[in-house]
Design brief:
It is a single chain. By secondary structure, the chain is of the alpha+beta class. Helices cover 38% and strands 29% of the residues. It has seven helices and six strands. It has helices spanning 2-6, 89-95, 98-119, 123-130, 134-141, 149-159, 163-168, and strands at residues 10-21, 27-37, 41-46, 55-60, 65-74, 77-82.
């Protein structure tokens, strides 16, 4: 649960729906405000004080439906962790604006760069090991290119960090200055 709460969230304030089974086989849909999202989950503010079970779905205004498990609850605020893990690039596009996606790419790139430097690798060494050009690594670290998941997994293995740390870990000290 802590890795989901630590994920970098993007402030949205969009409307959506929370849908769940009420225990009798009927579905209940409750309007909510999607306060922020990340690749691992969403923080929701319910528009009513209705009880929400441990498993529910969030339906975004784009029509995207993400199954969630309850990560935490505080009054009408609830944290939902996506049950299928990380949202795909297409799903994130439906959940986040282009500006929010850009900030997410920038954060991932900064965390990859910090981990690479901590292990003493150059951009060229990482590029050679994952089968890309050094220019691609530089662009990815600057947040200007998406790193495919299979390459991100390979980078995580090389740098001895988890994919969670690269995607949703704390921001490096100098990332905000960039």
């Amino acid at each position: 649960m802590s890795e989901h709460r630590a994920a970098r969230r993007h402030h949205t304030l969009r409307t959506g729906m929370v849908e769940f089974d009420n225990g009798t086989g009927s579905s209940i849909s409750v309007p909510c405000t999607i306060r922020d999202v990340s690749a691992t989950g969403a923080r929701l503010q319910l528009n009513s004080s209705l009880w929400v079970p441990d498993r529910f779905a969030v339906i975004f205004s784009s029509g995207l439906r993400k199954d969630c498990r309850l990560a935490w609850r505080k009054g009408r605020l609830i944290g939902g962790a996506f049950t299928d893990g990380y949202a795909s690039a297409d799903e994130q596009a439906a959940m986040m604006t282009a500006d929010e996606q850009s900030r997410q790419r920038l954060g991932i790139g900064a965390r990859v760069k910090a981990a690479r430097e901590m292990r003493g690798y150059t951009e060229a060494q990482i590029a050679e090991r994952i089968g890309v050009t050094p220019a691609f690594v530089a662009l990815a670290e600057q947040g200007e290119a998406d790193i495919p998941l299979y390459q991100l997994m390979h980078i995580a293995d090389l740098l001895m960090v988890s994919v969670d740390d690269l995607v949703a870990g704390p921001a490096p000290e100098d990332a905000d200055a960039a």
